[in-house]
Amino acid sequence: MSYSAGDFEQDAVKTARALHISYRRCTYLLNRWWAGMNNQFPVEQYGDLHNLMNRVSELVQDYEADSNAKLNTVMAKSDLTLPGDI
């Protein structure tokens, strides 16, 4: 089975969609985390969750750095419109 340029482009679009959805999901979770959910999970018992949310925060910051350069690249190839998109 051969893998054509068209197949590659379709896979790239699917990847952009997945990254787009992941970014929106991360921002959704972070907003709720900092709105008080973080207080519901003591770090002593839920250290893994706190570590995950730290990584989520870092990913969002990375996407939004340099005038949203990474985010704009993903959004340019994703053909989705999700809540939170301008």
Question: Any overview of this molecule?
Answer:
By secondary structure, the protein is mainly α. The protein has one domain. It is built from 2 helices and no strands. The longest helix is centred in the last third of the chain and has 31 residues, at 47-77.
Round the Cα radius of gyration to an integer and report it.
Answer: 16 Å
Please bin the fraction of helical residues.
over 70%
Please state the structural category.
mainly alpha
Q: Please write the string of helix (H) and strand (E) elements.
A: HH
Which outline best applies? elongated
> In what range is the share of β-strand residues?
under 5%
Poorly predicted ranges: none
Sheet of most strands: none
Q: Count of helical segments? A: 2
Overall structural domain count: 1
Q: Give the termini distance in whole angstroms.
A: 40 Å
Mean pLDDT: 95
Beta strands, count: 0
Spell out the blueprint of helices and strands.
Blueprint: H1 5-34, H2 47-77
Helix pairs in contact: 1-2
Key terms:
mainly alpha, single chain, 86 residues, 71% helix
Give a brief outline of the structure.
This protein has 2 helices and no strands. The protein is mainly α.
